[in-house]
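In this supplementary section we document a worked example of the pipeline. Step one takes a protein sequence of length 112 as its only input; no multiple sequence alignment statistics are reported here. Step two produces a three-dimensional model, which step three serialises into structure tokens for compact storage. The input and output of this example are shown verbatim.
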Amino acid sequence: MVKLVSIFNLKSGVDPDEAYKVWREKHTSWAKDKMLPEAKKCVINRLIHKYPPAGGMVAEFDIFGYEMFWFTDLASALKAAGRWRSAQPDEFLAKFIKTCKMVIVEEENVKL
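The serialised model returned by step three reads:
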């Protein structure tokens, strides 16, 4: 499986709870409406704890949350990424998000 992952950070002064509510509503309906028909699964993740905490020795990342779509192969993920990039910004992106980055990740399951 291959994952298309979008990573978000918020504009300053944005209420994180409101941003999360709008993100879940908009992008859940977007996923259910099959805007990415090749996608097998969608997961929306909000960061609830940053590691290391502020003031740690390592630079802190300014990430609010991330969204993952699973695909069976790289070609499907690349096609979806192109479609996603060419789409008009939705309310969530325009009102709440400062930066949105996308990566494609190959997945391997390891038994623990």
